[in-house]
Design a protein that fits this description.
Layout (H helix, E strand, L loop, with lengths): L3 E2 L9 H6 L10 H18 L7 E6 L3 H10 L6 E6 L2 H12 L3 E6 L8 H10 L2 E7 L1 E2 L4 E2 L2 H11 L4 E5 L18 E5 L10 E6 L1 H8 L12 H12 L11 H14 L4 H22 L15 E5 L3 H10 L2 E2 L1 E2 L9 E5 L3 H4 L5 H13 L1
Helix pairs in contact: 2-9, 3-4, 5-6, 10-13, 11-13
EC number: 2.6.1.44
Organism: Zygosaccharomyces rouxii
Keywords: Aminotransferase, Pyridoxal phosphate, Transferase
């Protein structure tokens, strides 16, 4: 019997997405594959709530982390300043990536479980000319949800030339996100989280002004595989229905992502966001109100795709659930890692009540902590 996977990604896939993963190989420039990836790119725009023509979506072989490399190697020159807002492990890792490519990084750290104050962000933006600011909408290490719209509004008002980069790895598909309305310049996610596909694809969207910066001959190309100068004409060709080539795409993964995006868009994104919030609110309420467990994330800034709570013996809890066919995750935050557990609730596990995944994980945690 296969365990029920309730970590913050990869997640349980729908039967149709799983089936698409087993599709036969086809040539990556064939009319059959071009039709699929063209639809995937157009649907990526829709899921990000981006303009149907401006900017460019990218679906590339790689993990969500690859999106950091794309941003760091294409959207900032060496020695230019970047401001990183940190609510946990993954924000800090994004900062390390930027430093590796030569950016001059300043970091504003939130208290554990909280967010960086808007006034502090505004004050910092007034001190320097930043090429880029990074916002991790949900840091998976703490389950903290940052208010991207509010922060973007501050950036547009105080430092409109600064590119706004959003790590949406654990948010796109389950949290409210408006690429165009909020004026985002680059947003990245991964196939295996709330998009509901298998791991292995880096999925991202770039604005027109950020794309022009990346393609400018004066912007140095500092990555071969991650070069937007190389990938942009390929993605543009695919999206317009023409075969193109730079490196071989992951054909079967793209097929499964195609099905996953179609499933997401069968209904409105707003309804899907609300379904995730309803599931999240239920589980958090049961864990905190009935079991008296303390949430790692402050209630007003808690993510809807995962829950992090303190428990006395995390290895004992995760082991008990594993013995009963459910897999959850331990903590990874550098300060509190050994003190808490994390439960993912994205995709079908969150929106299909017939699966009974979330009530079951609650019952098992209740048994494990008593």
């Amino acid at each position: 019997m296969v365990d029920t996977l309730l970590i913050p990604g990869p997640i349980v896939m729908s039967a149709n997405v799983q089936k698409a993963l087993g599709s036969p190989s086809v040539a990556h420039t064939s009319p059959e594959f071009v039709a699929v990836i063209s639809r995937v790119l157009q649907n990526t725009r829709k899921v990000f709530k981006a303009d149907s023509k401006k900017g460019q979506p990218y679906v590339l072989a790689g993990s969500g982390t690859f999106g950091w490399d794309i941003a760091a190697s294409n959207l900032i020159h060496p020695s230019e300043k970047a401001l990183v807002l940190s609510t946990g492990f993954f924000c800090d890792s994004f900062a390390e990536c930027l430093k590796l490519y030569g950016a001059d990084v300043d970091k504003l750290d939130a208290p554990v479980g909280g967010v960086v104050d808007s006034a502090e962000i505004e004050s910092q933006l007034r001190k320097h000319n930043y090429r880029m600011i990074t916002i991790t909408q949900v840091d998976t290490s703490t389950a903290v949800l940052m208010d991207v719209k509010r922060i973007a509004d501050v950036v547009h008002r105080v430092s409109p030339e600064t590119l706004i980069v959003v790590d949406g790895v654990c948010s796109i598909g389950c949290e409210e996100f408006e690429f165009d309305k909020w004026g985002i310049d680059y947003a990245l996610t991964a196939s295996q989280k709330a998009l509901g596909a298998p791991p292995g694809l880096s999925v991202s969207m770039i604005s027109q002004r950020a794309l022009e910066f990346a393609l400018n001959p004066e912007t140095p190309t500092r990555s071969f595989f991650g070069s937007l100068k190389r990938w942009t004409p390929v993605m543009q060709g695919y999206e317009s229905g023409k075969g193109a080539y730079f490196a071989t795409p992951a054909v079967q993964l793209v097929n499964s992502l195609d099905v996953a995006l179609e499933e997401i868009l069968q209904d409105t994104l707003e309804k899907r966001w609300e379904q995730h919030k309803k599931t999240s609110d239920w589980l958090k309420s049961k864990l905190t109100d009935e079991l008296n467990l303390k949430s790692v994330s402050e209630p007003q800034v808690s993510a809807n795709g995962l829950t992090a709570v303190y428990v006395d013996e995390p290895p004992k809890v995760t082991s008990y659930l594993k013995q009963n066919g459910v897999v959850i995750a331990g903590g990874i935050h550098r300060e509190i890692g050994p003190k808490y557990i994390r439960v993912g609730h994205m995709g079908v596990s969150a929106i299909d009540s017939k699966l009974d995944h979330i009530p079951r994980v609650y019952d098992l945690i209740k048994q494990a902590v008593h």
